[in-house]
Design goal:
The chain has about 220 residues and is an alpha/beta fold. The protein folds into two domains: about 1-120, 3-Layer(aba) Sandwich (Rossmann fold); about 130-220, Orthogonal Bundle (Arc Repressor Mutant, subunit A), CATH 1.10.10.10. About 40% of the residues lie in helices and about 20% in strands. The protein has helices at about 10-20, 35-40, 60-70, 85-90, 105-120, 155-165, 175-180, 190-205, and strands at about 1-5, 25-30, 45-50, 75-80, 95-100, 130, 135, 140-145, 150, 210-215, 220. Strands 2-1-3-4-5 form a five-stranded parallel β-sheet, sandwiched between helices. Helix 3 links the parallel strand 3 and strand 4. About 30% of the residues are buried.
Length: about 220
C-alpha cells in the first residue's frame, strides 16, 4: 500500500515516515501543497495523510484541488485544529477522516486500515494477490504459500508484493530500488540482493518449488507458471 504524506513539520514527518514504513507502507513525502499535487498526479496512492497547516496553501484547498482532478483516494486529515467547526469543515470538504494532533500512532494506523477497508471493493481483487500457490493479503499484510503463513518483515512483504504485481516479468535492481525503497539509498548498495536472499529463503524454503529466480546481470523474476 502506498501513502502520500503531506506534512511540513519535519519531526512529525520523519516519525510518520519511519513508522509507516515499519508497518509495511510505501511512503511518498510532500512538505507543501505544490509538491503534493505533483506527486499525487505522478503516482497512484492508496491513501493520503494531509496536514491542514501547509506553508503555501491550506490543506483543505489542496484536498479540493485533488478531488477536482480526479484523485479519489481516501484522505486522513491530520491537524492541530481541534474545534468541531474545523473537523466538520474538513470532512465536508473532501476529507474521509480527521485526527487531531497530538495523536497516538496506534490510532493513526487503525484509522488508515479502516479507511482502506471502507474504500476497497467488495471483491478481493484489489486486496489480495495470488500467484500459483502464493497468496498475499494486502490489508492484513500477510503472505501464505501452500497454506503455510510466511513470517515476513514489513520490508520483505513490500518487496514480495512488488514481485507479485510483476509476476512473470523481469524487474531490475534499479526498478526495485525505485519502487520499494524510493531510491532513498545509494544505487550501488547490496540491500536488494540481501533482501531477495532472505525472501527466497522464506518463500522457496521447506522444499517448495522455486518461484524467485535471479537472472545474472539483468534482475529478478517471480515465476507465475
Amino acid at each position: 500500500m502506498r501513502v502520500l504524506l503531506v506534512e511540513d513539520e519535519h519531526d512529525i514527518q520523519a516519525f510518520l515516515r519511519r513508522s509507516l514504513e515499519e508497518a509495511g507502507y510505501q511512503v511518498d513525502i510532500a512538505s507543501d501543497g505544490k509538491t503534493a499535487e505533483r506527486l499525487a498526479v505522478e503516482t497512484t496512492h492508496d491513501i493520503l495523510i494531509v496536514d491542514l497547516g501547509l506553508p503555501d496553501q491550506d490543506g483543505i484547498s489542496l484536498i479540493l484541488k485533488l478531488r477536482k482532478i480526479g484523485i479519489d483516494a481516501p484522505v486522513l486529515i491530520l491537524s492541530a485544529r481541534r474545534s468541531v467547526d474545523d473537523r466538520v469543515r474538513g470532512l465536508e470538504q473532501g476529507g474521509d477522516d480527521y485526527l487531531t494532533k497530538p495523536f497516538a500512532l496506534a490510532e493513526l494506523l487503525a484509522r488508515l486500515r479502516n479507511l482502506l477497508k471502507r474504500n476497497s471493493p467488495q471483491s478481493n481483487e484489489t486486496t489480495k494477490i495470488k500467484v500459483l500457490d502464493l497468496e498475499l493479503d494486502l490489508l492484513r499484510r500477510e503472505a501464505i504459500r501452500s497454506g503455510e503463513p510466511l513470517q515476513l518483515t514489513p520490508q520483505e512483504f513490500v518487496l514480495l508484493e512488488y514481485l507479485c504485481r510483476n509476476a512473470g516479468r523481469v524487474v531490475t535492481r534499479s526498478m526495485i530500488l525505485e519502487q520499494v525503497w524510493g531510491m532513498r539509498i545509494q544505487p550501488d548498495t547490496n540491500v536488494v540482493d540481501v533482501h531477495i536472499y532472505r525472501l527466497r529463503g522464506k518463500v522457496d524454503g521447506k522444499g517448495q518449488h522455486p518461484m524467485i529466480r535471479t537472472l545474472r546481470g539483468v534482475g529478478y523474476v517471480l515465476k507465475d507458471r
